[in-house]
Amino acid sequence: MSHESVSPLVNDVKRQLESGNEKPKKSMAQDEGSASLSVTMDKPMCFIDTDSDGKLCVQQSALQILQQIQQPVVVVAVVGLYRTGKSYLMNRLAGKQTGFALGSTIESKTKGIWMWCVPHPTEAGTTLVLLDTEGLGDVDKFFPTFIWAVRDFTLELKIDGKDVTEDEYLDFALKLKHAPEKMSCLESLSAAISSEFLKVTDHFCQFVFNYSSVKRLKDGYTVTGRVLGHLANTYVDTISSGSVPCLENAVIAMAVIENEASVKVGLQVYQSGMEKLKESFPRELKDVSSKHQHLSSTATQAFMKRSFRDTDGKYLKSLEVGSVSSFWMMVNG
């Protein structure tokens, strides 16, 4: 195909680019298509932990899981004192007897923030993200380094009738005491737990399922697993740097990441289609023009499925410019 034969087509492309300032609207069909991919985890995994320097860090393995979730997410997190049944409730929300670790001492069993992504039991096409947090009051995290000063005029330094030193007696007094209710055995005692307790637990789960809505940003944008991962990463990086996290700043940073990725996705769709067309050259001008328009539309749809807050059309324009550049490279290559 000669350069002269494609000139009208290139001019037509330029006219489309110059007049294409209006950003296409996202359709419900596109939203549904983008929410078709889900991930089910067999067990929880650590989401946010502390590194060797004591700074918060997001586990990359957890981010990779979230990146695969293109469905809207309902996020349920539990926070509270250690050994108060948080992990047990989260296991019940996941529809499992075991999963999040249960503890039976005043030492928090859960360290950091753990994540479990499961299909939402009552909302089709939605992923339930359960976040179990480290119990407040863990002796390993609560107590700083200090000196114990104890005054007792009647104290006998004996344990089970045997003489001990002051340090041995204090260690014995502060030794972790196991709970009489055997919290760690709850996961295997369902038959022994009172029916009233199980009834209340089920009622709690149903309330969470029915009244916890899909997570959205303040402008109504639906949060998917991938977006949740971006937000978590931005927040943790901000906190670790010593700054105060700001939702708006996190959203702006996420929009840049998402829109740049959207342009790449759109260009890949256009370029792969044109490469296949190139294999059948020479072709009639009308065939090339028709294929270009079809691929441009398909690329724009792929872009729109992922783009976020491209209010001024900057990134959509970048996609269009990239498509034209790819077209010229193919023609002159």
Short description:
With 333 residues, this protein is of the alpha+beta class.
Describe the structure.
The chain has 333 residues and is α+β, with helices and mostly antiparallel strands. The chain folds into two domains: 3-30 and 249-332; 36-140 and 178-223, no CATH class. The chain contains eleven helices and seven strands. It has helices at residues 3-19, 28-34, 60-67, 86-93, 139-142, 166-173, 195-211, 225-240, 247-278, 285-306, 314-332; strands at residues 45-50, 56-58, 73-78, 113-119, 127-133, 158-159, 162-163. The chain has a five-stranded mixed β-sheet with strand order 2-1-4-5-3, sandwiched between helices. It has a two-stranded antiparallel sheet with strand order 6-7. Strand 6 and strand 7 (162-163) form a beta hairpin. Helix 2 crosses helix 10 (285-306), helix 3 packs antiparallel against helix 8 and helix 9 (247-278) runs parallel beside helix 11.
Write the layout of secondary structure elements.
Blueprint: H1 3-19, H2 28-34, E1 45-50, E2 56-58, H3 60-67, E3 73-78, H4 86-93, E4 113-119, E5 127-133, H5 139-142, E6 158-159, E7 162-163, H6 166-173, H7 195-211, H8 225-240, H9 247-278, H10 285-306, H11 314-332
Helix pairs in contact: 1-11, 2-10, 3-8, 8-9, 9-10, 9-11, 10-11
Family: Belongs to the TRAFAC class dynamin-like GTPase superfamily. GB1/RHD3 GTPase family.
Keywords: GTP-binding, Hydrolase, Nucleotide-binding
Pfam families: GBP (PF02263), GBP_C (PF02841)
